[in-house]
């Protein structure tokens, strides 16, 4: 079935090696060679595997394109003019999938243009005045649920020898996720549950204001016959369940078991999650809307967070539908072993 899915565009500046991790020997040679590299606004020295949300394109969007800039940079001011050309390396798709354990397809040629392929560092500059420009088109018409990747890399550099180009920062991977994430019934083998004994839980409300029968604490009591149950967003404007963790974790996913308070029509159908990182005050919303399948008795459903979110200190699930009443009997968070 060729379904059109909503997609989220993300950019990740990481190495061009198969391992997709920085090679420390590469930039040890800074003093010997003038390193030329590309970035998407990530400061030099920042974690290169960090993913930054650039754009969200939904089926309801009226925009027919989404464009962004990639900067040409140098570690030190260049001693003479350097011109570089941007291109696509299709062979790096397999390397990306292997390293990230994904099944991305190469973004089709009809869905992107490199409108500005050339950029120049003038003498004395560390950042070029004009950037490369990559345009994504008709993303809402893509249909692969595993998403797409576009490896954009420096193809040619003139004005300096080839050894001047950084081998650890010469590629930008544009990752396009399906913005709808469907849950599954199987827990990944490398997951370990986060200890719930010291969680500080809360919720937007408990049905009938009866915390004893429907409160947030009932979602972590280990009992399938008790539930957090709540008025939905149509009745109470908000519907969320929240926990503050005793220590930060790298969140790989979570599971939910269906509510047992009332009929199956009130089982959770869709939700979004937010996290607050250790020491932060702002919430970060995960870019994919979660869609739950029909529950099989008291078997949990699992949602994989890709990529995992680091330093999570607070976790919140906003229940979107059903919007009248909903909840769940159990919720667990998971990290990779």
TrEMBL record:
<dbReference type="InterPro" id="IPR008979">
    <property type="entry name" value="Galactose-bd-like_sf"/>
</dbReference>
<feature type="domain" description="F5/8 type C">
    <location>
        <begin position="186"/>
        <end position="336"/>
    </location>
</feature>
<dbReference type="Pfam" id="PF08522">
    <property type="entry name" value="BT_3987-like_N"/>
</dbReference>
<protein>
    <submittedName>
        <fullName>DUF1735 domain-containing protein</fullName>
    </submittedName>
</protein>
<dbReference type="InterPro" id="IPR000421">
    <property type="entry name" value="FA58C"/>
</dbReference>
<dbReference type="Pfam" id="PF00754">
    <property type="entry name" value="F5_F8_type_C"/>
</dbReference>
<dbReference type="InterPro" id="IPR013728">
    <property type="entry name" value="BT_3987-like_N"/>
</dbReference>
